[in-house]
C-alpha cells in the first residue's frame, strides 16, 4: 500500500528537516516528511540552543551567519543576541586571531578582548588564557519554537508530515525511493536524510555507510542565582566547559568524549568532573545549588571530523545528506535548508559546501576542527 508520494521524501522533522521541508516546498516541490516521533522531539528539543558565527572556516561562518540573520527576522525564533564569549588558551590564540580576521571579512562583528576586558561580560580567572573573543550577534534561540514555525510554513506551502512514523526499509526501485513504514510505503524520486543522530542508521537501511553516530550530552541547571548581569554563552576552550544564563539560573555542560552510543538518562557521575572544571575558571559557582529536576540530556550527532555531511551522496541517485552537525544543527539549520533546496534543483549552492561533502572521508585531511557548543 502506498501511503504517500511526492517529489521529495525528507526523513526527520527536527529543526534541520523542518527547515528543509519549508525551503523545498517554497521552491514548488511536493514534499513528504517522515518523523519517527514528533517535530523537534529528538536532539532539537534537547539543545542548549546557542547560535554563533565564531568559527574558523568560511563555510561554517557563513552557514551560521545567514541562519542567525534568518532567525532574527522570525518572531517565533525567540532570538536573543546575548553574545558568545570565547576564553582562548595561549596556545590557540594565534589561530583564533586568524579566525577573527576571516570572520570580519565575512561580515561577523567579532571583538578581540584581553582577559581583563572580557571581565565586563563575566567574572572568571584568566589563568592560561591568551585572549578572548566576543560577538554581540551570537546568542540563543527557542529551538522548539523555530522548528514548529518551519513545520507550519512547510504545511501551509503544501508539505505533508507523517509523524510517529518510523522508516524500516529503504530501497531504490526504478526512478523512485521506496520507504517502508509500519503503515505503508512512501515513494519519491529524491530523498533527504535529515535524521540527526539517527542518520547513520537511516543510511544503513539503504545499505549506505554514513559516518554519523550518537553521543550523549548533559545540561546541568543551577537553582536561582543573584548575578550582577545575565551571562552570555561562555565557552572555556581550555576545559571544554560552557555556560550561560537561562532566566535567573545558569545552564552548563562539558562534553564527555567517552559517552557515545545510544545511552539514555542523566549521567550524574559526570556532574563532579564538570563542576570541578567549571569552578577552576568560575569560582563563584561554588555558591550555586543544583536543580536536578531542571537538568536534562540529549544526543549530539557526531561525524569523524565533527563537521556536518551535506549534499549529494556520491554514486547514489537522488540521495541528499544534511546531517552530522555535531552540535551545530540549530545554529546552521536555516542556511543549510536553503543549500539543500538549491542542491535538489541542480543549482549552485549560495554557500560553498565543498568541505562538507561526503567525498572528504576518502582522505580525511583536516588539520583544524571547528569546536563544538
Automatic annotation (TrEMBL):
Alphabetic keyword roster: Oxidoreductase
Cellular component, GO annotation: cytoplasm
An example Gene Ontology molecular-function term: oxidoreductase activity
Keyword Membrane applies: no
Residue ranges of domain FAD dependent oxidoreductase in the record: 7-342
Keyword NADP on entry: no
InterPro entries reported for this sequence: FAD-dep_OxRdtase (IPR006076), FAD/NAD-bd_sf (IPR036188)
This protein's name: Sarcosine oxidase subunit beta
Species of the source: Deinococcus hopiensis KR-140
Amino acid at each position: 500500500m502506498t501511503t504517500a508520494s511526492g517529489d521529495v521524501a525528507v526523513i526527520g522533522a527536527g529543526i534541520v528537516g523542518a527547515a528543509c521541508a519549508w525551503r523545498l516546498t517554497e521552491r514548488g516541490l511536493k514534499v513528504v516528511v517522515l518523523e519517527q516521533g514528533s517535530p523537534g522531539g529528538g536532539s532539537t528539543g534537547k539543545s542548549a540552543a546557542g547560535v554563533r558565527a565564531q568559527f574558523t572556516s568560511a563555510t561554517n561562518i557563513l552557514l551560521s551567519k545567514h541562519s542567525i540573520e534568518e532567525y532574527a527576522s522570525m518572531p517565533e525564533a525567540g532570538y536573543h543576541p546575548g553574545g558568545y564569549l570565547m576564553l582562548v588558551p595561549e596556545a590557540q590564540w594565534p589561530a583564533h586571531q586568524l579566525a577573527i580576521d576571516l570572520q570580519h571579512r565575512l561580515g561577523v562583528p567579532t571583538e578581540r578582548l584581553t582577559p581583563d576586558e572580557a571581565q565586563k561580560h563575566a567574572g572568571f580567572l584568566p589563568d592560561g588564557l591568551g585572549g578572548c573573543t566576543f560577538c554581540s550577534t551570537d546568542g540563543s534561540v527557542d529551538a522548539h519554537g523555530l522548528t514548529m514555525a518551519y513545520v507550519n510554513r512547510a504545511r501551509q506551502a503544501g508539505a505533508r508530515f507523517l509523524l510517529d512514523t518510523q522508516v524500516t526499509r529503504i530501497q531504490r526501485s526504478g526512478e523512485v525511493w521506496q520507504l517502508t513504514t509500519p503503515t505503508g510505503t512512501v515513494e519519491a524520486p529524491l530523498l533527504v536524510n535529515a535524521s540527526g543522530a539517527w542518520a547513520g542508521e537511516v543510511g544503513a537501511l539503504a545499505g549506505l555507510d554514513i559516518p554519523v553516530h550518537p553521543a550523549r550530552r548533559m545540561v546541568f541547571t543551577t537553582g536561582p542565582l543573584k548575578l550582577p548581569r545575565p551571562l552570555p554563552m561562555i565557552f572555556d576552550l581550555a576545559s571544554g566547559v560552557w555556560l550561560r544564563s537561562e532566566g535567573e539560573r545558569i545552564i552548563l555542560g562539558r562534553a564527555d568524549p567517552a559517552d557515545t552510543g545510544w545511552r539514555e538518562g542523566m549521567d550524574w557521575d559526570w556532574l563532579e568532573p564538570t563542576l570541578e572544571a567549571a569552578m577552576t575558571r568560575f569560582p563563584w559557582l561554588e555558591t550555586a545549588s543544583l536543580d536536578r529536576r531542571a537538568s536534562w540530556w540529549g544526543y549530539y550527532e557526531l561525524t569523524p571530523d565533527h563537521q556536518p555531511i551535506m549534499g549529494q551522496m556520491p554514486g547514489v541517485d537522488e540521495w541528499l545528506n544534511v546531517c552530522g552537525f555535531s552540535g551545530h544543527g540549530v545554529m546552521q539549520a536555516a542556511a543549510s535548508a536553503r543549500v539543500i533546496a538549491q542542491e535538489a534543483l541542480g543549482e549552485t549552492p549560495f554557500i560553498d559546501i565543498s568541505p562538507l561533502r561526503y567525498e572528504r572521508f576518502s582522505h580525511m585531511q583536516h588539520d583544524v576542527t571547528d569546536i563544538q557548543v
